[in-house]
């Protein structure tokens, strides 16, 4: 029974490790104001802000990150589509930070204390930046977009025959704006062979899945009943 329990713990641990969570350096309770609400009364207040990285600005004795703020989600990552207009702010740290390590337009979250306000020109406008003295900064990985429905919804599309038919008649493919035929056309010899091979492959894979599921159920039942594992 011990090997079975060890496998179970390993699988659960691997699944939990894959769940998104707040990075360690960003954790903590932060009740400070948002960038657009910060005033001189908030100097010295600890905050956790984030947004889109606009520019990394190395200076003589420090490096500043210019960021356009966005709301943060449950794991402290800037949301993709914020409901409020962003406000620019600066997050500065002592020493040099290589701009090549912080790609522009990345999602970034920073923690630190509001240390000052600086006025800089944007075009001909004098813009007042809140400045955060950095304790930590986290660059988030690029978001990946996955198409949840690569195939059209009609059920007949999932018949293996149709992928071969539309390969030969792309103008009828509904994914390309075509109109599918009302009735399934007769198969030629090549299409018949292709359909046969596809159905054989599907049946073989289905059989393997059923066998695997049955084996898993048998192991679980043996584990619950205390029977020795094979």
Provide the fold topology.
Blueprint: H1 2-17, E1 46-58, E2 62-69, E3 88-94, E4 107-122, E5 125-139, H2 160-168, H3 189-225
Helix pairs in contact: 2-3
Q: Would you tell me the overall average pLDDT?
A: 76
Give the amount of beta strand, in percent: 25-35%
What is the number of strand segments?
A: 5
Give the biggest sheet: 5 strands, mixed, barrel
Overall helicity: 25-40%
**Radius of gyration of CA atoms, rounded to a whole number:** 29 Å
Distance between the termini: 10 Å
**Gross geometry:** elongated
- Overall structural class, as computed from helix and strand content, comes to alpha+beta
Indicate the low-confidence ranges by residue numbers: 1-18, 149-153, 183-187
Which strand order does the major sheet show?
Answer: 1-2-3-5-4
The helix/strand order is HEEEEEHH
Number of helices: 3
What does this structure look like?
With 230 residues, the protein is α+β, with helices and mostly antiparallel strands. The protein contains three helices and five strands; from the N terminus they run H-E-E-E-E-E-H-H. A five-stranded mixed β-barrel has the order 1-2-3-5-4. A hairpin with a 2-residue loop joins strand 4 and strand 5. Helix 2 runs antiparallel to helix 3 (189-225). The chain is elongated, with a radius of gyration of 29 Å.
Structure, briefly:
The protein is an alpha+beta fold. 27% of the residues lie in helices and 26% in strands.
What tags apply to this protein structure?
alpha+beta; 230 residues; 5-stranded mixed barrel; 3 helices
């Amino acid at each position: 029974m011990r090997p079975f329990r060890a496998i179970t713990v390993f699988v659960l641990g691997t699944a939990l490790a894959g769940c998104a969570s707040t990075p360690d350096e960003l954790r903590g309770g932060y009740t400070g104001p948002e960038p657009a609400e910060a005033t001189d009364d908030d100097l010295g207040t600890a905050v956790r802000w984030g947004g889109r990285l606009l520019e990394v600005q190395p200076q003589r004795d420090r490096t500043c990150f210019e960021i356009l703020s966005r709301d943060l989600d449950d794991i402290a990552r800037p949301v993709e589509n914020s409901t409020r207009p962003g406000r620019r702010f600066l997050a500065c740290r002592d020493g040099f930070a290589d701009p090549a390590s912080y790609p522009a337009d990345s999602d970034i979250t920073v923690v630190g204390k509001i240390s000052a306000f600086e006025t800089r020109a944007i075009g001909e406008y004098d813009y007042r930046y809140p400045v955060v003295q950095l304790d930590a900064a986290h660059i988030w990985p690029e978001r990946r977009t996955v198409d949840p429905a690569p195939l059209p919804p009609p059920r007949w599309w999932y018949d293996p025959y149709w992928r071969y038919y539309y390969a030969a008649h792309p103008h009828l493919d509904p994914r390309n704006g075509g109109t599918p035929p009302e009735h399934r056309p007769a198969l030629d010899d090549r299409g018949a062979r292709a359909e046969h091979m596809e159905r054989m492959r599907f049946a073989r894979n289905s059989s393997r899945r059923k066998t695997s599921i049955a084996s898993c159920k048998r192991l679980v039942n043996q584990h619950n009943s205390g029977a020795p594992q094979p």
